[in-house]
Structures are given as structure tokens and as C-alpha cells.
């Protein structure tokens, strides 16, 4: 009787498919190195006045370091050196969807108050999930606390609306949007 030797062939993980760790790097270390390589390549090409193909740089770095997903623009903006920030920021900036009209929209939440119906009926409204008495930590009435504005307000503990506004202005300036705006609209929620 012939014995058949069955060998199980495992597919080796390929770069760019996740799970691949070249040179013993963790996923986070590989991500940091890939971002640094992308930013350095962009800076070198920009200094030589050559065109920067961001997608090609990102895919090459992902292939080299075996990343499952490409680094986000925000991660690359945070890694920009101050010396090259002005020249590289326009290449990394996303399309101006919210600020295309030249108006910056800032939503600021005020301190949460209890539902006014508690005083009259003794019960809260069924359709208003939030408020200081709700399960959603410290959210404003009719908000769950998981909206971006709600999360910023919870982090700031709604001490000053001014500080939240300054925080949003800093984010717009950091991402290179602030210089293009004509006016600011503030919505108090």
C-alpha cells in the first residue's frame, strides 16, 4: 500500500494584505515608519520641484511595510516637519467640502439642562435620549453623546463655549483650512 504524504501548504502572507510583519516590526511601528518615509519622499520631491504622486508613495510604502490600509491624511499632516509644512500641506489637504464657500461652520454645545417636561409631567420625553440624567454620560438633550460635537463638548466638560470655539479654530488652522476662509458661523446647540 502506498502511503500518501499530504503536506499542508500554507499561503504566506503577502505585503499589503495585513498580518505581514517585515523585520519583526509591529503593525504600529511599520505604520510610523511608512508615514515617515512618505513624508520624507514628499519633502525631497518638493525641494527638487518635481511632481508628488501621493497615491504612488502611499502604495509603495504600504507594500514595503506590509500595511493592510494606507495611512490617513491626518496622520501624515501630523508628521509634517515645520520647515516643509507650507509647501507640503496643500498636497495633503482634502477637498474643501465644508469650507468651499469660504465660511467656516463651527458647532458648539452648551451645558446640558434637564428636560422641561419633568417639572410638568414628572417624566422625560421618550424621543429625547440625552440630558444630564440620561445614560449617555453628559450629553445635551436629544443627543446621544456620540456625535463629533457632543464628544468634543464632553471632553471639554462644557466649561467654556469659547474654549470649544478656539479648539475648532486650532483644528482648522492645523489642517491648513483657516487661511482660505472669509467668515465664521457659530451654531450653539
TrEMBL record:
Taxonomy, top ranks, is: Eukaryota, Viridiplantae, Streptophyta, Embryophyta, Tracheophyta
Residue ranges for the region (Disordered) are 1-25
Task: Look up the record and report any one GO term of the cellular component aspect.
Answer: nucleus
Name of protein: ELP3-like N-terminal domain-containing protein
Chain ranges of the ELP3-like N-terminal domain: 32-100
Per its UniProt record, what InterPro entries does this chain match?
Answer: ELP3, ELP3-like_N
PANTHER family xref list: ELONGATOR COMPLEX PROTEIN 3, HISTONE ACETYLTRANSFERASE-RELATED
Q: What one GO molecular function would you report for this record?
A: 4 iron, 4 sulfur cluster binding
Supply the alphabetized keyword list.
Answer: 4Fe-4S, Iron, Iron-sulfur, Metal-binding, S-adenosyl-L-methionine
GO BP annotations listed: tRNA wobble base 5-methoxycarbonylmethyl-2-thiouridinylation
